Structure formats: structure tokens, C-alpha cells
Amino acid sequence: MTLSYASGPAAAPLLGDTIGANLDRTAARFPDRDALVERATGRRWSYARFTADVDAVALGLLGLGVGKGDRVGVWAPNCAEWVLVQYATAKLGAILVNINPAYRAHELEFVLGQAGVRTLVAAPGFKTSDYAAMIEEVRPRCPALADVLLIGTAGWEALVEAGRAADAAPLAAIGATLSTDDPINIQYTSGTTGFPKGATLSHHNILNNGFFVGELCGYDEEDRVCVPVPFYHCFGMVMGNLAATSHGACVVIPSPGFEPAATLAAVAQERCTSLYGVPTMFIAMLNDPSLDGLDLSSLRTGIMAGSPCPVEVMKQVIERLGMAEVTICYGMTETSPVSTQTRAGDSLDRRVSTVGTVHPHLEVKVIEPGTGVTAPRGTPGELCTRGYSVMLGYWEEPDRTAEAIDAARWMHTGDLAVMDEDGYVNITGRIKDMVIRGGENVYPREVEEFLYTHPDIVDAQVIGVPDERFGEELMAWVRLRPDAPELTAEALREFCAGRLAHFKIPRYVHVVEEFPMTVTGKVRKVQMRAEAIAILGLGDAAAARHA
Questions:
Q1: For domain 434-546, which CATH number applies: 3.30.70.270, 3.40.50.280, 2.60.40.1840, 3.30.300.30?
Q2: 3-class DSSP state for residue 85?
Q3: What confidence tier does 194 reach under pLDDT thresholds 50, 70, 90?
Q4: Dist. CA 416–CA 271, nearest whole Å
Q5: Of 126-130, 453-457, 535-539, which range is least confident?
Q6: Residue 520 has pLDDT above 80, yes or no
Q7: What is the torsion angle, in degrees rounded to the nearest 10, for the CA atoms of residue 535, residue 541, residue 545 and residue 547?
Q8: What pLDDT was estimated at residue 190?
Q9: Which contacts (CB < 8 Å, 24+ apart) does range 542-547 have?
Q10: CB atoms within 10 A of CB 402
Q11: Could you tell me the residue ranges of all domains in the chain?
């Protein structure tokens, strides 16, 4: 019997650099190559200019008194300044605190207080959010907050100019005191109950994870990576920015927030070789009217991640976008984030049905949820990860850290997975999402994948709702193609009959225009369940039982 354990062999060693030292090394090799392109403003940075501006921002922050270990918040949509602050704080040894662009005042206040943010760099606003007003609202209750710099205003420009005029020697001296294991980044995981937790990551965590993501995508200085996913999340700032700069590649920012047409135009006009997105983003791009008129022949690879990747969508990404080497990544913020990834040489079946094999220098295993014993291959259980990528811990929350990372330094993901005989991992859902119907375990992902084969369904999500007889019943939320006929529960049951086991066939169907989502494209199934209970009239008693 083979156990569900695998460790990742590596052709390249782990990097021993700090983020700042690694950037300087790349800039020395490729000073004239593009490092960053911001489509919204037309601004462009070569590696030489980008590094000079990073140093200017770092020296400007130093002039404000920001030092090693101080927390610097960044609250903005995707923009060049976000990237400059990311690398500038790393050069100072300050801890970058990523703040979700969708946060409202009470969430902002929590993060500023919990992390003890000293300096906040923010956009004045984005879409309907007035960031400046929210900052002023909460500032009196955030005693640690000494300085606020609004991007694009005189205060920000003054900081940059002061940095350009400053003596650069202190920055080099600071660099010599930094350790790769220093905390460098706090990312707040999206809490479904209560307030989020601040995953604390080091130079070593995120620089190496970005580097090996880039290695498995085959990046070099010729690559141009289109990054429409948010920088505040690991997908953007690690898998995007650090994967690119550790290889001398260029980051292309298509727009401040995700826009399908703007992203496709950026790929075409900037001749991007790689494109990132969560499944819902790729679905939007595949359905955008501008797609058929664009030359996307430069694309060869990219990453689909963030939530389960539907098979049919993956096939269209390969066929219609030309991303023949597209990879799927799996991970979580607490593991910097990637633990497994498909490889360009994997068969199409592997790339559409698994999240690949373990990453270089990491270990993964699947354990029986009840006992913690490593499960045999082919048996579902909880996926755990160990290695350089595991976070230092949740910021100032040792008890919650101990709940997630065991004594042997295994990170317990909470995800249900199956490892096959060749070490490929398939994520079957969240432990908390598993539906138990009449004693039968139902994994929503399996049902969702089947529903994608329905000719009128564009996207599907399956949840469990309370039921007097079976304990739980299945409910499918679906998005339909334009002009599709009405889809009833009876019609869907007929489609499933004889093709799915009877206990896996959804009893209820709810047609929607969109699903409740986090900014990173993860479907909020907790919110869906609450809405479903109200829609079905199950009442407070049923909701309490289900909780």
C-alpha cells in the first residue's frame, strides 16, 4: 500500500536572498528590459528605472521614520505604486500589510489596529469607495497610525522626491542587517466567520514561492506576465510580481480592477506570454465580445487558480486563448501560497482534472480527518503541507496559529483531497463544504463538474441546505448562457438521471446572474447557504441546525 505522501524534487536550490537583494541582482542583469507596465496611465519602467524608484520610495519612507519591523499598510487597487511599496518595504525590512480593496471602514479599522500599522499608503478612492473619507473616520481610533500617504497627491509626490534626493548609503546599510527569515508581509485571510487572521510571511516564504512558480511556468527575461488578479493577494504580489522579477520578466497591469476587455487588450497589445486569473475571470474573458477580434498568439502559458478550475473552462482556455502550457496552481495564503502545480509537460487530462504534483522543496500528505493518520493513495482526506512556504504564524495570535500548524510544522489546509498513485492531487472540496445526505458523503466539486457538461450552464456551484428527512439536501446555483430557456429543478434532475448517483442529484435549482464572491474570486458558500435558507423558507430553526 502506497501512502498519500509526496515530497518535491528540485533542479534549482532555494534562494537565500532577501527580496531587495534579489531585485537588485535582476536589475543588474537586465537594466534595460521592461520590468513594469501600467496600461491605465501608459507608464513604463525598465528594471533600472524601477529599482531606482523602489529605492526612492524606500528612502522616503525611511525619512518618515519607518524602520525594520514597522508595519506599512497598502490600500489600493492594482497600480504601479502598489508594486513600488511592496519592494520598498522589503528593502527597509518593514512589514507590508496588504489591505483588501473591498474593505469598509470597520474592516479597515480592525486591520490597522490588529497589525499596528504605522504608515498607510492608500489610493484616495476606487469605484464607489471613498478611501480617504474612511481613513479619516477611523484614524482617531488607530493610535499607532502616524502617517497617511494618498497616492497621486502632493504628499505622495513629496515622499518620492525626498527619497530621490536622499543619500542612498543608509539603505544599503539596512540591507546588510536583514535576514531572509524576517517577517516581511501580513496578509489577512478572508474570514467567513468573525474577523480575518493575519498570515505573517517572510522574505524566504514568498520570494522562493514566487521563484518556483515562475520556474514551473518556464519564465525568463523574455516573458511578459499579464496580472489582472489583485496585488493585495498572494496571487498578484507573489505568483505575479515576485515570479516575474526573480526571472527578469515584465509585469503588465491591465487595469486597476479586473475588466475582461481591458485584460484581453493588454495581452494583445503588450504581447503578453502569460495570463493569470481565477476561473470566473477566464469565463468572463471567454464570453467577452472583443475576444474573437484580437491577436493573442503571443500567449503560451499562465495560471488558473484561486478556486476549483472547471474542466470545460480549462479546455476553452487552451483552445480559444492559445494557452497551451497553462498551469493550475493550488495553495493558500498561509503557504505563500502555492503547494502543488501542474507542469507544462503534463497531459491535458492531468491539467484539467488535478491541481498537479507537489512543488519543489515542499512536502504534502493527505490525512484521515478523524485520526490524523496518512491515508492510502486514492482515499479522500485533509491535505497538509510542510516546508519553506509555511507561514511564520498568524500575527500576534499564537493560539490560532497552533490550531493550523501542528507540532511537526504541518499546515492543515482544511481542504479535502485525493492523491493518486502518481502523486497527482485532486481537490474535492472543503471539509466544511462536504454535504452529508442521508449518511452519504457528497463532494460538491464532483457534482459541479458534471453540471458544466449541461449545454445551457455557464457556471455552477453546489451547496448543502437543511432537510428534515435527509439532514441535508443539495442545491445547485447556476449561471445560464444568454437566451437559454428556463432551467427548472425537474429539468435538471432529468439531465442528471442515470448519469449521477441519485443522492448526488440536486433537489433545488437557483438561477442567478452572479455568485457572491470575495475580491479574489472565491465563491462565498457560507453566504449562499444563508441566502438559500431564506429563499427556501427553511427558517431560523433549520439555519441553526445547519450551522
A1: 3.30.300.30
A2: helix
A3: low
A4: 38
A5: 535-539
A6: no
A7: 60
A8: 63
A9: 542/466, 543/466, 545/466, 546/464, 546/465, 546/466, 546/472
A10: 12
A11: 434-546
